[in-house]
Amino acid sequence: MPLQFASRLDNVETSAIRELFKLLGKPGIISFAGGFPDSAMFDIDGLKQAADEALTHESGGALQYGATEGYEPLRTQLADFMQAKGVAGVESNHLIVTTGSQQALDLLGKTMISPGDKVIVEGPTFLATIQCFRLYGAELISAPIDADGVQVNQLEQLIVQHKPKFVYLIPTFGNPSGALLSLERRRQILELAVKYQTLVVEDDPYGDLYFGAPPPPSILALTKEMPAAREWIAHCGSMSKVLSPGLRVGWLIAQPELLAKATMCKQFSDAHTSTFAQATAARYLKSGRMPETLKIVRKAYGARAHAMGEALKKHLGGAIEFTQPQGGLFFWARLTGAGGGIQDAAEFAKRAIEQGVAFVPGTPFYAANPDPSTLRLSFATANVEKIEEGVGRLGRAL
Amino acid sequence: MPLQFASRLDNVETSAIRELFKLLGKPGIISFAGGFPDSAMFDIDGLKQAADEALTHESGGALQYGATEGYEPLRTQLADFMQAKGVAGVESNHLIVTTGSQQALDLLGKTMISPGDKVIVEGPTFLATIQCFRLYGAELISAPIDADGVQVNQLEQLIVQHKPKFVYLIPTFGNPSGALLSLERRRQILELAVKYQTLVVEDDPYGDLYFGAPPPPSILALTKEMPAAREWIAHCGSMSKVLSPGLRVGWLIAQPELLAKATMCKQFSDAHTSTFAQATAARYLKSGRMPETLKIVRKAYGARAHAMGEALKKHLGGAIEFTQPQGGLFFWARLTGAGGGIQDAAEFAKRAIEQGVAFVPGTPFYAANPDPSTLRLSFATANVEKIEEGVGRLGRAL
Q1: Where is the Aminotransferase class I/classII large domain (chains A, B) (predicted)?
Q2: pLDDT band at A25 (very low <50, low <70, confident <90, very high)
């Protein structure tokens, strides 16, 4: 008799991506597949100093069990970090530290979703969000997006129709879309949250990665224009894309009751996030090196995004369409089929692997009604030279 | 309209402990309440060196996203560590790294428990296990224990009656019981697992903390005597009690299919455990300092356990009964009511706080049928002097 696993596992399907990632081991492959930041950009000296200081000056705190809510010096630094990004009045006890922002999603699922509950997400949205919420039994509803982010009129209709437990958005340089929700739409989202008393989760791992002008304020920051909306907005932040994913330091800001329930769930998920990593992150933020680190990261990714856009135009021309991203880590593109070219991104991905370049086809990013001609290209991991070479290979794979 | 939380939260009750822990902030209190290791025993120099080496020699790995299964150098070290503890043939791919062993419990819950499923636990058992499994909808069945651990005849009857999804045991210096499952019973457990094709989860955070002779081999190690049982045993390990809880490094050993499903669940729980903490732990284990660290820790806790036992006899005499623990961090005791003394541990806890000493009453450790005269005393956090002073206060509180 084999083991009987929990029925919630029946809701999850991960094989498509797993199969693709197996192929990435092929020697010489250029990968546009992952959303990994470039290791060459990590501020190793700064982190080494931060870790050493933490173990020297607060070894008790850094190595002992800690509060489930998070290590207080880090919570204070993160509150300051969010205030500096325009979120008025945020204090350390308005946030909890999570084991990466993936855990913030998991805790929202655990805290909020009963089996059969509906959750509205963008179509397309972050793959691991889809699976995470489905493991808690969510029925996902897909709201369409364009280059300005989620289409608010359609979102409103879906809220009315489905009465979701919450709405999940990646408003700033979305994954996989790269889209930037306009300021006008952000304000409309706040109105919807209040009008329908609906929780809106703003996942914001990429907001600091802008290449030109800064993006509009986060939806959370905009609640200062509409204080009644504050209790309906939850916000997930992360150090992963700007400092180091290996630390696994994210955070969740939400109204007190939700935060208390999420903390209780976290207690039984992992007790607390590594205090060793938290104390190191706190020392790093306190050191004042973050603004310079962000400048370096923005500049490098900006150059890569530019190079990828130019190379796509040069090597794929009319066969592909996309909006040049203004920040983040991703191009979201659509195969046009122009000139009788290939229009199925999964098939294109196979041919691309044969040419030595990898990307993720768009279908798995949709909770419903996938557009099979879409694909995601990450410019995070490869440098400009590799990007040009890799896009050249894409051209040959067409 | 307030937020509607997930129905799974209705299964959890944490207020009793929370209220108690609030009182711990009182100045001058001596705490026998928590299971925190003593910060004074952390090998700070060893960990500082390990962290520095990890950031110097493998900064890419230590700061980048990592495999959900765990950082390979750590998995290799942990496999060696388990082999040295008598688990034959364990290789790095037989285990996954978890964010503390609390996450191993959470992943077992997520992977195995459908709402309404039954799980057998010891009565009493680890508090956070009870809540963790209930959040996944488990109905917990309580199997009685004595000083030799779970009573196997009764366990067998409960397995037959309830057909549980799995059995959860802390066989070695259990929390809160301090009990040590005898070698004979360990072998009987293996027989039950095979006979009833029932998964047995062995949670083993305390096995290395023995004061005299080493305990019998772990249930997992004993599978070498009965290879057919290997697939029915899952084993949770942890660095928290022997090296540092702040690292949040635990591990789960299980048969391949269960491990694969747990890995999938972990992917959507926190993506992976901090590679920064994992690389540091791997370097530490590789440094060869662990055996000396274990010697120091065993000696210190042994002295504390001895002091607590003597003080209890001296100050509480016949009013309390207990078995002297041979390892771990806890005394499990029962108020006898001798001489008309207090017999309700919750009431005794209140009086003790007034005298400046804290412990946890036993009731919350039972999934069912609590014995209200029981209590747990930890000798982990306070040194010998404080233990004698604290137990004196307990005597005055009687």
Answers
A1: 47-394
A2: low
